[in-house]
């Protein structure tokens, strides 16, 4: 009897291997894409949280250490700009970015206080307090990051207050 040396792969075996490899590739690709999407969502959430908290902390610090509030001047008055110490410091929005203008510094520059990828909108300062008492400024703004209409878009409204000491 003659023995045949069968080395190689049949067409059916090759198709089964290719099918299994294709299924594994699709599953791994989907997993990779979902991990990337989660990463972007996490980065946007982190950017919004970091900028929002930093802006609130910086505003509270500046208000607490100011000698006077120039704008908004009167109780109940609202403004989208906050001026302290006779205009020496001014916080404002331009192109959905949050800025601090400081007349103390050489050349009186404006400093970008928010991340380039974070949009700040709906900024409102309102003077609160009691007649004859120390003024308190309430602060409200919305921070957002990511493309609107996608699952990666993150938006949060921040509210706080600071008063003269």
UniProtKB/TrEMBL annotation:
Organism whose genome encodes this protein: candidate division WWE3 bacterium CG08_land_8_20_14_0_20_41_10
Pfam families per record: N_methyl
InterPro entries documented for this protein: N_methyl_site
Source organism superkingdom: Bacteria
Name used for this protein in its record: Prepilin-type N-terminal cleavage/methylation domain-containing protein
Positions of transmembrane segments: 12-36
Upper classification of the organism: Bacteria, Katanobacteria
UniProt keyword list: Membrane, Transmembrane, Transmembrane helix
């Amino acid at each position: 009897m003659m023995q045949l040396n069968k080395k190689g792969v049949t067409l059916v075996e090759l198709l089964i291997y290719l099918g299994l490899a294709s299924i594994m590739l699709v599953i791994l690709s989907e997993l990779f894409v979902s991990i990337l999407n989660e990463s972007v969502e996490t980065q946007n959430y982190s950017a919004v949280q970091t900028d929002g908290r930093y802006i609130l902390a910086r505003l509270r610090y500046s208000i607490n250490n100011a000698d006077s509030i120039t704008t908004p001047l009167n109780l109940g008055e609202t403004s989208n700009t906050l001026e302290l110490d006779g205009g020496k410091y001014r916080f404002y929005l331009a192109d959905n970015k949050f800025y601090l203008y400081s007349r103390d510094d050489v050349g009186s520059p404006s400093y970008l206080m928010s991340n380039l990828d974070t949009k700040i909108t709906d900024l409102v300062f309102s003077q609160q307090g009691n007649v004859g008492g120390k003024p308190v400024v309430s602060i409200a703004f919305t921070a957002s990051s990511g493309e609107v209409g996608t699952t990666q878009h993150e938006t949060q409204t921040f509210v706080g207050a600071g008063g003269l000491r």
